[in-house]
Amino acid sequence: MDVLTVIVVSSVSFGRTVIGLVFRPYETYRRIVSHGRFGELALVAFLIVVYFAFSGITRVIAVFGSYCITLASFWLAGRIVRVKFHLGTLAIAWGYTLIPTLVWFLMTSLLYVILPPPRTTTALGISFSVVFLMFSATLLWWKMMLSYLTIRFVFKIDLPRIALMCTIVIPIVTAYSALLYYLGIFKVPFL
Predict the structure, then answer these.
(1) Minimal CA–CA distance to 94: which of 139, 128, 64?
(2) Confidence at residue 166, expressed as pLDDT on a 0 to 100 scale
């Protein structure tokens, strides 16, 4: 296959996967873990780079640092919990958990342009804030669900071992996010 064909096939596959993540996340994650390709992950990376190119190269580096720290944390947790897994499969599946995060960052940027702060305490301002919080909570729930499915299908473990892995991973990722906040790179971590 030539390069153009690979790009088109990966783009179509990526689009179908994103739609599947919205409407059929369980089935989609089963397919990602068993048949995912790195070409699809490249499209996630491309979209993130395009978004953060407008924000600055430091943030692009920090985002990929967050991704690598998260993968390394899961690799370490997988070794501690003693489960067999493929790092490539983890990289692809975790890459798709960045879709809700990217949607949130895009929407907040768009809303900042459409309705810049300060927002008022009028009925319209409060309504906007409530809708924004509901939208953010929905995306957070989607992110948590995709993260759970990634851990469940990549590591093939039960809930108690998932909880154990999270007690290893969450402090590492939290410390990295706090460092980015302290350095002024991110106010909200891109995880």
Answers:
(1) 64
(2) 94
Dihedral of alpha carbons 191, 53, 184, 65, sign = positive
Number of neighbours of residue 81 by Cβ within 10 angstroms: 15
Is residue 186 classed as helix, strand or coil in its secondary structure? coil
d(CA 59, CA 76): 25
Instruction: Taking residues 163-182, report their average pLDDT.
Output: 92
Q: How far is Cα 58 from Cα 22, in angstroms, rounded to an integer? A: 30
Mean pLDDT of the region 129-158: 92
Enumerate the domain spans of the chain. 3-182
Q: What is the pTM of this model?
A: 0.76
**Mean per-residue pLDDT of the chain:** 87
CB-based burial of residue 83 (10 Å sphere; 0-12 exposed, 13-18 middle, 19+ buried)?
middle
3-state secondary structure of 167: helix
**pLDDT tens, residue by residue, 67-79:** 999 999 999 999 9
Tokens for 135? 């939208």
Determine contact, residues 77/138, Cβ cutoff 8 Å: no
